[in-house]
Every structure is written in structure tokens, then in C-alpha cells.
Amino acid sequence: MNAEPQLEELSAYLDHELTGSARQDLESHLAGCDTCRRRLEALKETVQAVRGLPLETPARSFTIPAQRRQSQHWEPAAWIGGLAAAAVLTVVVGLNLPHGGNPLPTSASLASKNETNQNPAAAGAPGAAFSDRSQGLPFAAYANQATVSDPAAPARLLTLSTDSASYRADRTLTLHLTIQGVTYTPTQTSTSAGLRVVLVRAGAGIELYPGETFQSGSTVTFAGSYNIGQLGLSEPVAGSYRLMATWRIPDGKGTTLEADVPIQITSG
Amino acid sequence: MSRNEPDDPDLVGRARRGDREAFTQLVMQYQIPLYNMALRMVGTPDDAADVAQEAFLRAWEKIRTLRKAPFKPWLFQIAVNLCYDHFRRGRRYGTMPDEEQGGKVVGLGLPAVDPEERALLSERNRLVRQSIEALDHDMRVALVLRDVNGMAYEEIAAVIKVPLGTVKSRIARAREQVQERLRVYPELFHLPSANEESSER
Q: Using CA atoms, how far apart are residues B165 and B150, in angstroms rounded to an integer?
């Protein structure tokens, strides 16, 4: 009988990774050795126990941005301020959240470069009107959400939502930016559709590019996931931020809708 | 897909040329195996999803540099490196999820309708996960790539960049250690000892 096989050989044999004479030698040894057959059986049971662990599905889907991350820089947000300063109306939106969560203090604003004296009532009453409209969105389950409509065309809506309002600095933030009531061509990116989304704090911000696109009729959603640790946020990273979305509507009037949600980043 | 289905060269080629739709199809193809590898490595669903998301992002950013190397080991290599980064940061190292913490189960689990049988299976799985958790990182990754992802030794060697003999030895030692831990529960795992009397006699 051949020499007693090593553990490695028994293990490789189970994986069909033993070939030629090594395999033949082992099989001939096993034929005459109860002890090694029991060793092999125990190893086989162990392997089956590990392989018997059920495969699981991730709780979220994985997305790829249209633009590569190298283009992102934390920078003074002067270019954001132009839009923010033009905001003439802020509406606190209370949403009927699908899973009973408490509405977060989100806001939605309308900024119009040409029409700076909008009638506040024209933006629609906060609360019910927005919440009803939000129900049909593809990602309405996201709790941290703000929606604003265009007073000149109430069916035109901008919704910004994130999968949470608070993240650890080593986590991934997923955002959805939905526009409704617009003619959209599938080749458009979020940028060419007139959308910008920035994460801002204390006058500095970073632009994010939600690259994944979903369309259903006149509703288009751009989605993106960002590893917060990779964004290059200035130290200390932990703190209170706002995620601001602007949509420059291609209506020739310069109308811009703006929605933002609070983002809290905590240390890892 | 089968565990060792080869890459679709057309899909990988298109992704290399910047076709995001093609890359998204690769994400769809690999998200379950990659997530489950990460889950068995880092333990919690949140951390595993973060690892998988970051691995896909990095792969997308670097796929243009992928020459003739096969996509799958390359992608898994990125994810394994992220798992090692995770260990180095010392986050939640050593913790593994309870059954209830996991995501939706999609396959390979044995159906167990009887509540008692189901409870036993759940306990068995918990102990197996704990035994994997107790392995050192090098042994754990070799075992997971082999027995969770079904990779061949050569493929594992390409992922973790070690010689074939090292792969063979790490897998064997990992299995031995898992076995010794499971042996403590003879009511749940039938693991004959080399010295015990054969039941056939």
C-alpha cells in the first residue's frame, strides 16, 4: 500500500484537482485503508456543509456612474451659490412615507433667473399635492426625499431622494434624481438633461454624476452610488451637508427647479 | 449561470471600449457571486454591499487597462483587495451576520419545510459561518473562492496571486480548521474521526 496521503492531497482529490499518477496512488491507498477513507469522508462532509450555505441577494443594486470619479473634486461652491441665491421660494415638503418613517426636514425650491417674482401660491401647497405625486415614482420608497413642481407646468416635477439621511464616512450613498413631465431622449445624460447634483457644506461642494438611467413614459430617473470615503471631502469629513439638485428646464425661459435634502455624515 | 461560465469576450471587449451598457450586464452577471464572496469575507450585508459596489466602480474605472487577462479573476481580485483593506481598517473584523441579518436567499439552500428541520439547518449554517469567520484572512479567502464561488485552483491562484501549491495548502488547512470546529457538534455534523471504529464492521 502507498504511503498515507497528506491532508492537501485528500482535499485536492475532492476538488478533482489531483491528476494522473497522484490520483491513482491515492485511490489505490484509499481502497485498502479505512482510516483514510474516514478522513476523506469527514473532509467531504465539511466541504458540503460550507457549500450548503445559501447564496444571498444584496439588499441594493449596484450602479455605475456615467462619468468617472476622477473628475470629482471638492471645490469652492461659488458656481452653486449662483443658483442657490436665485431661489425665491422654499417649500417644506411633508411626504406620506411608504414605510411609516418620519418625514425629514427636506426642502424644495424654485429658482427662476428670468422670473424672480414668482407667486408663492403658484408652486402648489406643500404636503398633500406633493405626496400624492410622489407615490408613482419608481424609487418612492426612499425616505430622504424632496419634490418640487414647476408652477408654470405643474406636471413637471423634480424629485431628489437618497437611501438614508445619515451615513458613516465609509459607507455608500445612493441617490435618485427623478424628472417627470419632460421629453427625454435615451442618449441624454443627467448633465445634458439639465440636471446637476452637488453635495455641499459651508460653501464648498462636490458635483456628483448619477449615471444610471431608468425611463418610464415621461418619468426619467438618474441613479448613482458613491462611496463617501472616495469623494475627497475636506476634513473633518463628519458633519452636516446638504445634497442639492438643480434642474434647468429646457423651456427657453431659464426656469430652474431646485430640491435639496439633508445629509449627515458621521465618523466611521 | 453556472459557477465557472467563461466571460463573454464580446461583453468584456465592449466594456473595455467604454460601453457602460455592456459593463452593466457584467455587473448583473457577477453581482450575486461577488456579493456572496464579500459577505463570507467581511461578514455583514452592509459591508459586503459596500465592497461589491466599490469593486464594480473600480473595475469600471480601470477596465480599459485590462488587456488579455480574463475579467472574472481580475474583478474578484479587486474585491478581495477591498476585503483586505476592510480588515486593515479593523472594521467589524470577526463579526458575522446572524441568519436574519442576511439578504434574501436565492439558492443552493436545502429546502426544509418542517420547522424543527429548518431550525436545525439554520443552526448548522450559523455554525459553519462562525467557523469560516474564525479562519485567518488568507485561508478564509481561499476557502470562500473555492467553496462559495466554486472557482478552480488555477483561477484562485490568479485572484490572490499566489502559487498553485499555496492555494492547495490554504484550502486544505482551512477545511481542516472548519472541520475541527464543527466536530464539536456531533449532533449536527457527522464527521467521522480517523480513529473511530468503522460502522461497517
A: 18
